[in-house]
Amino acid sequence: TTRVMEALALSNRPLRLPVSLASTRYDVVIGSDLISRAGALLAPVLPRKAAIIITDETVGALYLNRLEEALAQTGIATRSLIVPPGERSKNIDTYAGLVDSILKEGVERRTSIIALGGGVVGDLAGFVASTTLRGLPFVQIPTTLLSQVDSSVGGKTGINSRWGKNLIGAFHQPLCVLADVSALATLPRRELMAGYAEIVKAGLIGDPELFAWCEKNGAALLDQDPETLAEAVRQACAFKARVVAADEREEQKTDGRALLNLGHTFGHALEAELGYDGRLLHGEAVSIGLTLAFAVSVRLGACPQADLERVTRHLEGLNMPAHIRDLPYSFKVDDLMSHMLKDKKMQDGKLSFVLAHGIGQAFTTRDVPAQTVRDALVADGA
Ligand code: NAD
Ligand code: MG
């Protein structure tokens, strides 16, 4: 029993990852059962003992009571606002409705906004926090793997416009991020795999040891081993925090935050072609986009074939989508090319891409011949 107790104590001690930026610093706290301990974890961080929790119906049904009770334990008064789940809540009407509810009841400037949910809730609540009374303190409690490893770190908040995704937004850094890996137990496996693609991406961009760690531990992670999940979240957040610290507001055109788009130009084209209707999750599109980025890199002589094979083998080994032909939909090369030319990251109509010299060696380039991209798409099943 002592060993069991020790193991329990260990798993209950959260990891703290400090994020240091020019504008601010905060901790990403990573561990099990953090929602139940949110009162103790947040009391030292919040400027006053009052918060408005924003969540979605699905996450709210699972975790909202637990969070409200935990905050009440340390005397933090809360009220909660619940939006429908899914990408469609990241719209201007839902945003306006939330701000209106907050103002209607009256809000003090030092009241915090707490986002409880995935990236949709985090981006939406963060944008509400960044704009209401010119900025309310903000806390993220991400409940999807994607939001724990990616969207909750970096300070980008926002909503979609009818002209495209994430076109309305602001940078607003949180006071604190609580990444509770226990909450991932209720996440559908497909969502878990989609988030995992962004961890693999981090390794492929600039952390070869993280990619090697994924090769060893990916299967245990997808089987929800809590220690493995916590370690993956820590490594991926540490990677993103390093990139964000060097380029907080995405002002560098070449390396910096732009590298975080590895696999995303291809991925966005696949998502856009399906009309962002949920048939293909963002991380699934990224998973295919990663192999395409390596395939184009190999075609241009920038990257060894062996590295492309390593990436493909890893994704396929975990039953992640790795090729366009893995999807039950057909795509036309011309349609995918035209989406890529419309991508907001394209400049002056040139195809700008994140490619790789090898695993952990991503770079940005604007000299990618369209024909090379077309050939890679055809070879992949378009
Ligand atoms: P999401 O927030 O829609 O969550 C996915 C689904 O899982 C939803 O239906 C949600 O209700 C449900 N869910 C969430 N947590 C759950 C849990 N613990 N158990 C059971 N169900 C749960 O999607 P996401 O993948 O987390 O985030 C995608 C969004 O993140 C996109 O809008 C994207 O633009 C944004 N994003 C932002 C950044 C950034 O830097 N701000 C980075 C990457 C992605
Ligand atoms: Mg992404």
Automatic annotation (TrEMBL):
Give the record's pathway. Answer: Metabolic intermediate biosynthesis; chorismate biosynthesis; chorismate from D-erythrose 4-phosphate and phosphoenolpyruvate: step 5/7; Metabolic intermediate biosynthesis; chorismate biosynthesis; chorismate from D-erythrose 4-phosphate and phosphoenolpyruvate: step 2/7
Q: Which residues form the 3-dehydroquinate synthase C-terminal domain?
A: 195-346
**How is the cofactor bound, in the record's words?**
Binds 1 divalent metal cation per subunit. Can use either Co(2+) or Zn(2+).
- Please give the superkingdom of this protein's source: Bacteria
Q: Which residues bind Zn(2+)?
A: 198, 264, 282
Mind listing the UniProt keywords for this protein, alphabetically? Amino-acid biosynthesis, Aromatic amino acid biosynthesis, ATP-binding, Cobalt, Cytoplasm, Kinase, Lyase, Magnesium, Metal-binding, Multifunctional enzyme, NAD, Nucleotide-binding, Transferase, Zinc
GO CC terms of this entry: cytoplasm
Question: Per its Swiss-Prot or TrEMBL entry, what cofactor is needed?
Answer: Co(2+); Zn(2+); Mg(2+); NAD(+)
The entry lists its GO molecular-function terms as:
3-dehydroquinate synthase activity; ATP binding; magnesium ion binding; shikimate kinase activity
Protein location: Cytoplasm
GO terms in the biological process aspect are: amino acid biosynthetic process; aromatic amino acid family biosynthetic process; chorismate biosynthetic process
Predominant location category: cytoplasm
| All copies of domain 3-dehydroquinate synthase N-terminal, residue ranges | 81-193
- Binding-site residues for NAD(+), renumbered to this chain: 119-123, 143-144, 156, 165
EC code(s) of this entry: 2.7.1.71, 4.2.3.4
Which catalysed reactions does the entry list for this protein?
Answer: shikimate + ATP = 3-phosphoshikimate + ADP + H(+); 7-phospho-2-dehydro-3-deoxy-D-arabino-heptonate = 3-dehydroquinate + phosphate
Q: Give the function comment from the record.
A: Catalyzes the conversion of 3-deoxy-D-arabino-heptulosonate 7-phosphate (DAHP) to dehydroquinate (DHQ).
Subunit structure as annotated in this protein's UniProt entry: Monomer.
Its family remark reads:
Belongs to the sugar phosphate cyclases superfamily. Dehydroquinate synthase family.
Name this protein carries in UniProt: Multifunctional fusion protein
Organism whose genome encodes this protein: Acetobacter vaccinii
Whole-protein coverage range: 194 to 575 of 577
